[in-house]
């Protein structure tokens, strides 16, 4: 059920122009030039096998990459509500952003520029740099996360039919930057954020120490390690309590040691957090992720499904944040290209795994009691993200990170009630049972 990236971009279109500003046109879904954007998708993932974790992952899922997981914190969202027909203005890059379709003076548009027309904004990295290294993984990953961002935003805007996305382009003074897209107070979504970051610089000694504690024997110079990191991160909170919340994040990390030796790995995952249990929804979501994983090895989904259940655990409540999905980190074998193809498949699975569930439930009737339960479950979401999520915690103590970015995953509204406990045999008690005892949804 995983769609090729190109197929997902055949509807709405963002025409990038005027130095990096993007515009979402409702109705005709056409750009200012009057023609549909070319789908930015890449070729489908090839068959891979033997995908697995590097040697540092043997300690289990609680030992994931702190700084890599913190990409969501570095990504950032500036919330703003827009009307259905809206222009998403972006802060211009101080380095002088150009239209994604622009090249050097007199230069004809090339394939890269045509692909960029489908993005929410021009790439963080200058097009001239991307052209110089077309086969480099940093280039391929940046284009993938830009494509994923555009396709998810497109799908969400179609479903919402009300608010548009604001687009916020930001810079990190230590190196790099990102693009944050936010839909807020829409017809369907209370808050939907899809953000990318492409950052680089030097790791602090504290970050390097964390990696050494995880088994990575990295050689620094004068206490510094060069790194590059990029990823796409999203949290989507619908208004209707019968429509589930989703989170996904896919990222790539490189570290260069003092002697020039490079280490790389991928991480990410996608998980579903419903307010009420709908078994058909749970089966659809997990089967879609399993199909994406199975294209690269039959052992991947069960391994990463368990990792997800273990990671999103609220220890002080004795329950999971949601009904899981997949989660992985430190993925560095069998080859960089094969792992990239796997990550691409997972990113492609987001829209087909989630959008049908929102369409199914966006118009469901609900009671005040059901809305209250949604607010209480969102309280649990907040508790996990602030107390346990290592990306959030790391980001709060990382120089140059944006507080809006770090807290982008939090809902607009949530609630805590003293000693609240659902009635036995109620629908509220049913979802709690699943959160306390994860199920196998695909066998």
TrEMBL record:
One of the record's GO molecular function terms: coproporphyrinogen oxidase activity
Keywords assigned by UniProt, alphabetized: Heme biosynthesis, Oxidoreductase, Porphyrin biosynthesis
Nucleotidyltransferase among keywords: no
UniProt-listed Pfam families: Coprogen_oxidas (PF01218)
Gene3D superfamilies (UniProt xref): Coproporphyrinogen III oxidase, aerobic
Positions of the UniProt region annotated as Disordered: 91-111
Catalysed reactions, as listed in the record: coproporphyrinogen III + O2 + 2 H(+) = protoporphyrinogen IX + 2 CO2 + 2 H2O
Pathway: Porphyrin-containing compound metabolism; protoporphyrin-IX biosynthesis; protoporphyrinogen-IX from coproporphyrinogen-III (O2 route): step 1/1
Broad enzyme group: oxidoreductase
GO cellular component, one term: cytoplasm
Any one biological process term the GO annotation gives: protoporphyrinogen IX biosynthetic process
Superkingdom per UniProt: Eukaryota
EC number of this enzyme: 1.3.3.3
InterPro entries: Coprogen_oxidase_aer (IPR001260), Coprogen_oxidase_aer_sf (IPR036406), Coprogen_oxidase_CS (IPR018375)
Biased composition (Low complexity): 94-105
Family that this chain belongs to: Belongs to the aerobic coproporphyrinogen-III oxidase family.
Subunit structure: Homodimer.
Name of protein: Oxygen-dependent coproporphyrinogen-III oxidase, mitochondrial
Taxonomic source organism: Myotis myotis (Greater mouse-eared bat)
